[in-house]
Predict the structure.
Amino acid sequence: MKANIFPAIRLTAVCLLFFSGIYTLIVWSVAQLAPNKGKGAIVTTNGKTYYSNIGQKFTEDKYFYSRPSAVGYNAAGAGGSNKGPSNPDYLKEVQARIDTFLVHNPGIQKSAIPSDIVTASGGGLDPHISVQAANIQIKRIAKIRAISEENLQQLIISNTEKPLGGILGTERINVLKLNIALDNLK
Amino acid sequence: MNTEITGIILMYAALVAMAIPLGKYMGKIFSNEKNWSDIIFNPLDNIFYKLSGINPTKEMNWKQHLVALLTINLIWFLIAMFVLTNMHWLPLNPDANPSMSGDLAFNTAVSFVTNTNLQHYSGETGLSYLGQLTLMLWQFISAGCGIAIAAVVFFAMKEKATDKLGNFYFLFVRSCTRILFPIALVIALLLVFNGTPMTFEGKDTITNVQGDTVQVSRGPVAAFVAIKQLGTNGGGFFGPNSAHPFENPNYFTNIIETISITLIPMAMIFALGFVLKRKKLAWTIFGVMTIGFLLLLIPTIINEMKGNPAISKMGITQPMGSMEGKEVRFGSAASAYWAINTTVTSNGSVNAMHDSLTPLSGMFAMLGMMINAFFGGVGVGFLNFYIFIILAVFISGLMVGRTPEFLGKKIEAREMKIAMIIALLHPFLILVSTAIASHLYAQNPTLYAGWLANPGHHGFSEMLYEFTSSSANNGSGFEGLGDNTPFWNIACGMVMLLARYLPIIGPVAIAGILANKKYIPESAGTLKTDTATFGLMVFAVIVIIAALSFFPALTLGPIAEYFSIY
């Protein structure tokens, strides 16, 4: 044991220098060439800057809603609800979200509501919703903003992110980008 | 075909296609055969040896290997404790986060040194950037330590009778610099160009479209996430791990991260085939592991894509499956794949909240950790599987009336005793500690009300999952558990310690003892260990010993919950 202590301490120090120091510095240096210098991807509109991957809370009726979030979309400390599938309080909460959604979206069938718009995401910062979740909000937004439903439909189609290479993963819509496009639609 | 399904088929195919050549490369690294990496890494490794005062050519026997491993791990633990309890005044702390309390620091230090990465803190508020960067160091070197010690067992499985099994430091340094470092660097750079931050600036404050002001945590994330996946560490930079859009921004990064979780554990099996020149044995082991993996994976994908029946009853539709705790950009199939991937390999990172998985999916995730040998953690996954091989050889030998032999070495009482103790240690640690926690909770549910986020069977599952994760050195959690209390910090810390070092000591001891024995050439009477029949035997032993001992506990948790909502 004794013969190992000093080599072990010295080896740990060298590893610290190399893996925490040099490795980190290499990644950091290359990151200076990345979009926004490795400070997170951003989207700019009308002089305002947002993080394009970090979802935002959209609860006003004039915007497409984002998903519920366990942390209120505050990216200072992200997290999920961690509610189990059988938890009675949780199921009541989902039921209440469905009821609220129906009140704000008259004329929408309950069976048309997809579950992603009434359940919270894992990180609480999900920037996306499903295409169906956007489509069922067209009626409400068309009425409030006095825009034709066809125009909104077009907006959704042009903001739909296809599966990777057309064949891998999900089809989805970035709510932030969709709502920015919505605000710019005049 | 459904694009979510094609996504996961591609991930698995790409994984195997990369693991085979990597395994060959790793075999060369272990055996010190000439290869392209020598040009860059021979000078680098020599700097490591020189600065550390190590003679990398000094051969060690199995006991010397274990002493070297345990000594350096003790030093890592002490340094980790110092940094975690002194972060508030040390540099690189732009968000002015506090130091950890003693019990939380103990848990976290043990957790990262043992390659577990169980996290009872949240990265955004619980660590400075210096804390993150030192934790990242353990992510490299605890993984390198696991790879090195598995290579020692590979050497011991060779035909000659010897007690010389290579040099621990030599294998350790090479594993870190030539395997982990270059691959982690590639992954980190891919992440950076897909939107993962790599900055030393602190929180940003922004005003959202609707006018509310929020803060956005950032940091040197890309470097951290790369090695977290590659070294089966799993500890996230942020609280929600790879469900956070900064750690895992899109479906492409999800593919990269998913593949890197299983890459080295799978490549280890192929490396074994190359080192021993027994490719058929490697393919037999690979076959058993793959079948076990698929048996856990397929029902989990089906369950998650079907959705939560309690939500179906409300009359809405679940076209994407069960979406609580999941991200739309990954979907439920890729999240289910990740959940099984991360639990069979002892990685423990998540891209969806396991606490919100449907009951049976939660059970399959737990089973992955309870078995802990379908690919398993880097290096140590093979050691766990080795124990099952030894047991299967012995049982098969008895069944056909032959002396149990493995690769030409007789297995006798001493090796069997060690193998049984190690095989039973895992269920013992999990079940006893869960029983103690459940007893405490049942005695005083008001005092411990903060422990459980969910009532009933699911609450029991939260406790069972936490200890299973600790004992499997996995690190994922049913995160509803209020686990930053002295009880959970210390109990989980003790379980992680025992479950890391005893299952390393046991197989290394067995392999070392076997290596010393006389080699008996194969004859017509030898039990062949590279056949499908033997593969089936190993699988049966795994099912009987690992899976069935947990069945009663699983009936109380996930199985009971399943029947309560279907």
Summary: The radius of gyration of chain A is 23 Å. Chain A has six helices and five strands. The mean pLDDT of chain A is 94. Chain A touches chain B through 101 residues (CB under 8 Å).
